[in-house]
Design brief:
Structural class: alpha/beta
Radius of gyration: 27 Å
Oligomer: single chain
Strand order of the largest sheet: 5-4-16-15-14-6-7
Number of strands: 34
Bound molecules: iron/sulfur cluster
């Protein structure tokens, strides 16, 4: 045990960067609360942040010891740190000597701390001499980076969170903020409540919970954003709603933009986008004529083969109307990951150098080389994420060191990524979790510390640098990411550059931060005046924060002097181009991807929590009912989703939130929970030509009914997270044999149920035997086992004392929901156990939990709404929406839907 402690830190999920207070006792995190003094969230947390403590309470599934495989295909075996360090350093140095520095690549993560990022960047560019270091931020924000640089002259948003309070018109483009940035979304809601008349325009091919709350939802065809923004600009020019003073005094290039939008009339743009001309013109008017217009945008713009152009077309609107550089106005890119910004600051990507310097700029390279005291920094362009794995597959890159990310799930065209990892001479995976899809390919696994165990800094979406502090020690032998990198770096330096001064002399993250901030001096993001002491004394601070400043800069370009050489912002003429891979008669559907409310990325953390599954228990493919009817498909059918790059099977969910012709799947599910790697199996690998960001938001697919006639459902009541993870690990190898399979957790009071849904083409006795064995369905007095081999039916159930503990249904799964409900209820079994095989009179319909914090189901909410309850009454009577508030958008929507149907 030990004394209770409270440690102020930062949430590890999204780019809002909420402050948290971690309560711990000894080496155990016992609670997480919002930090009322943190300017990003003022004490609020969303469902993900609020459940952080629950994800940190078990070391099950964690990578606890360094390990390696004696040969490919063998299981990982524990090894001493010293041996692991020497092995990785020696192998990498050998590959550099044999094949040159560009034969080595680093693939890191927007979840690393700035100090971790700094060391990896220095290791790659300073020691190895390659720019082959990229990050999963490439999948997230790189189009926003190129957009800002080309238009405003420097990376980073001009805006701050306070602008959400001051905006009179808010344009939300390609962002489901209600799910992806919930605490900011709540702030927007509060601002609209405080100033009725504030208008929200939401641009999204889906009617998300965010879009449902908009004053104007522009449900455009996927990938048509540039046409929309150019059509809006055409209308502004026609109506004369421009800020000529801003255009003439502070920008350049407007005439070229004017020429390029000349033919994009509102009618033409509306036709491309599939919306009405009236709505497009209305959006343009609200945008231009509002006292302050703020654009908030995210993956919907960035994850595109024309992501940079989408960003530029939107910034053009701000420049033309002068909606920038003042309270409540400006283009505000919301970062997806907790430290995508910090990674950019240290230059931890293949296309940039430290402190927003450019690889292509010889003077910048010389500055960095001199600062690091190395001979030179390579001017050869590094490989961005998709190209990096293609080069690995082609044998040009021989070794990859993957840190805190899961490319075998998160990159598009997963099978190509798997092939690349198989082809590599050396795959080093540095991870906190031992069971990600990428760990399966690791030759060496280096166990990393995770959230709650690490010390350093992160930068959130509004350029605010916050401290991340360790509340507990890392479990097992896990170590901080920067320590692992620095240790291997020192050993590589002895092998590659023994005479150079020590490149990695650090003992603490503070020393690394001090080196990083020195490199920023004189740059647009100058934090020469900021150090750990100021962060300790005055809390999180925004950049720039040059030496001599009392505080950072909240809002940039208020003097209308931009970060370009001329000081003028650059209009960029961009015209609409279709998506990279168009639909066709063979692949007629637009597939778009996105996030769920309560899951995060590849679920390595949130997938440990039963509560995180209650809102969306299984993966689905969402489709408009009219499309389904035309194909003879029904809700719940299993469908094959196939593209030119791959295929997977998903259960169909019908929804009118999508336009006909567009389908949607969530990005989170992967090989630990499914029989496939998830939706990226089918996503195409086309990238933006300027940002190299892949087009994860659009793939042309075909949808067919999956002929998988043999259905299986199984579940087991498990004793807490530890057993849930162990059971999931035991079942996971069985998934591969299925045409479709999904594992998920269900919260059942203070217990947890692990549930499997599977479908195979034909009965498979051996597979079923393995499943029954994994659920301890051996013979015994507490097991009932019914088999009809001729029909392919098996039903077995196991009790403990008077409680049903587990069941398997194969070939006839009609009872599954009823048995799951019984398992979840945990009540004593009444009557004959034989009733377990008898269908209930009334079929049990699966309910969905809307409020995770209070465990309130959709059925209870709908019943209250039918009795006349509004959101306030729902909160008062059922308690839903009263803790983190993440479900409030859905509650509002449910109330609104009910009003419309009345
Ligand atoms: Fe974490 Fe939620 Fe805040 Fe994002 S909004 S930082 S996920 S608590």
């Amino acid at each position: 045990m030990g004394e209770p402690r409270t440690t102020a830190s930062t949430c590890c999920y999204c780019g809002v960067g909420c402050g948290v207070l971690i309560d711990s006792v000894g080496d155990r995190i016992v609670g997480v609360r919002g930090d009322p003094h943190h300017p990003a969230n003022a004490g609020k947390l969303c469902s993900k942040g609020l459940s952080l403590a629950l994800t940190a309470q078990s070391t099950a599934g964690r990578a606890l010891h360094p390990s390696w495989r004696p040969q490919r295909g063998a299981p990982l075996q524990p090894v001493e740190w010293e041996s692991a360090f020497d092995h990785v350093a020696t192998r990498l140095a050998e590959i550099v000597r044999r094949h040159g520095p560009d034969a080595v690549a680093f693939y890191v993560s927007g979840q690393l701390l700035t100090e971790d990022y700094y060391i990896f960047n220095k290791l790659a560019k300073g020691l190895v001499g390659t720019n082959n270091i990229d990050t999963n931020s490439r999948l997230c924000m790189s189009s926003a980076v190129t957009g800002y640089k080309l238009s405003l002259g420097a990376d980073g948003p001009p805006t701050c969170y306070e602008d959400l309070d001051h905006a009179h018109t808010v344009l939300i483009a390609g962002s489901n903020m209600a799910y992806a940035h919930p605490v900011l979304y709540r702030r927007l809601e509060a601002a609209r409540e405080a100033r009725p008349g504030t208008r929200w325009i939401v641009v999204d091919p889906r009617r998300t919970d965010t879009a449902a709350m908009a004053d104007l939802h522009l449900q455009i065809q996927p990938g048509t954003d540039v046409a929309l923004f150019n059509g809006m600009l055409h209308h502004l020019i026609w109506e004369g709603w421009l800020d000529h003073g801003h255009i003439a005094g502070h920008t350049e290039g407007f005439d070229a933009v004017k020429r390029i939008v000349r033919d994009t009339t509102p009618a033409a743009a509306a036709a491309v986008c599939g919306i009405s001309e009236r709505d497009l013109c209305q959006a343009a008017e609200w945008f231009a004529r509002s006292p302050a217009t703020l654009s908030l945008y995210c993956m919907g713009l960035n994850q595109s083969s024309h992501g940079t152009d989408k960003n530029l077309a939107l910034v053009n609107l701000h420049l033309a109307t002068g909606q920038i550089g003042r309270a409540g106005a400006g283009p505000f890119s919301l970062t997806g990951q907790p430290n995508a910004m910090g990674g950019r600051e240290v230059g931890g990507m293949a296309t940039m150098l430290a402190a927003h310097r450019d690889i292509g700029n010889a003077a910048h390279r010389a500055e960095v080389a001199a600062f690091w005291k190395v001979d030179a920094v390579s001017g050869r362009p590094g490989l961005a994420a998709v190209d990096m794995f293609d080069a690995l597959a082609a044998g040009k890159v021989k070794a990859v060191w993957i840190v805190c990310t899961n490319p075998a799930h998160s990159l598009p065209r997963i099978e190509a990524v798997r092939q690349a990892l198989r082809r590599a001479e050396l795959v080093v995976v540095q991870e906190a979790y031992a069971d990600t899809d990428t760990v399966a390919f690791a030759d060496v696994l280096l166990p990393a510390a995770s959230w709650g165990e690490k010390d350093g800094t992160v930068t959130n979406s509004e350029r605010r640098i916050s401290r991340v502090r360790a509340a507990i020690a890392p479990p097992g032998e896990a170590r901080a990411d920067w320590r692992i990198a620095a240790e291997i770096g020192r050993r590589m330096q002895r092998l590659l550059k023994p005479d150079a001064p020590d490149l990695f002399p650090y003992q603490t993250p503070r020393e690394i931060f001090d080196e990083h901030r020195a490199l920023t001096q004189g740059r647009d993001l100058d934090i020469g005046g900021l150090d750990y002491d100021i962060l300790e004394a005055r809390g999180p601070q925004q950049w720039p924060f040059p030496a001599g400043s009392a505080q950072g800069l909240a809002r940039r370009y208020v003097d209308r002097r931009y970060a370009t050489e001329s000081g003028r912002a650059c209009f960029q003429p961009v015209s609409y181009r279709p998506v990279a891979v168009a639909t066709s008669p063979r692949y007629p559907f637009h597939l778009t991807t996105g996030r769920l409310r309560d899951q995060w990325h590849g679920m390595s953390r949130t997938g440990r929590l039963a509560q995180a599954f209650s809102h969306a228990p299984e993966p689905t493919l969402d489709m408009h009912p009219a499309d389904a009817a035309r194909r003879g498909l029904s809700d719940g059918d299993l469908v094959q989703v196939e593209s030119r790059d791959g295929a997977l099977v998903l259960p169909l969910r019908l929804t009118e939130d999508l336009a006909s012709g567009t389908v949607f799947a969530a990005m989170h599910w992967n090989g630990q929970f499914m029989n496939s790697g998830g939706v990226n199996e089918v996503c195409n690998a086309a990238v933006d030509g300027k940002s190299f960001q892949p087009e994860l938001k659009h793939t042309a697919v075909r949808i067919d009914k999956a002929e998988l006639g043999w259905r299986v459902r199984a579940a087991i009541d498990v004793d807490g997270q530890e057993e849930a993870l162990a059971r999931r690990a035991a079942l996971q190898p069985l998934l591969a044999a299925c045409g479709y399979a999904a594992l998920g957790l269900r919260a059942a009071g203070d217990r947890t149920v692990l549930a499997l849904t599977a479908a195979l083409a034909a009965p498979d006795e051996a597979w079923l035997g393995a499943l029954a064995e994994a659920l301890d369905m051996g013979a015994g007095p507490d097991v009932l086992d019914y088999r009809d081999r001729r029909q392919g039916v098996r039903k077995c159930a196991r009790w403990q004392a008077d409680r049903l503990l587990a069941f398997v249904l194969a070939g006839d799964v009609a009872q599954a929901e009823a048995l799951l409900a019984r398992l979840a209820a945990g009540k004593p079994w009444e009557g004959s156990r034989l009733r377990v095989f008898t269908p209930d009179a009334a079929p049990v319909v699966r309910d969905r939990t809307v409020c995770q914090c209070k465990g309130v189901a959709a059925s209870a909410i709908n019943a209250a709404i039918a009795r006349g309850a509004d959101v306030a009454a729902l909160k008062a009577t059922l308690g839903c929406g009263t803790v983190c508030g993440s479900c409030v958008p859905e509650l509002s929507r449910m109330c609104g839907a009910s009003r419309m149907s009345a």
